[in-house]
Write a structure and sequence with these properties.
79 residues
Amino acid sequence: MNKEEIFNIVANIIRENFDNENLQISMETCGKDIEGWDSLEHINIIALVESSFNIGLTMKEITSMESVADIVNIIIRKL
């Protein structure tokens, strides 16, 4: 799985989590860019990422995820 494929899956996870297929997601997107992305939504997204990619994330990894790029890069390291 390449970086673009991982990005597309993560972007779709975020869109599904916020029930908004029109959300514009880029590698630079972070929580402050999306209305309603608070700490609870962050945990929901992380849980969906873990189950979608069949990986486990440490608390250090979770708290270091500030942008979509951070999420994608951690997934790449885990796969």
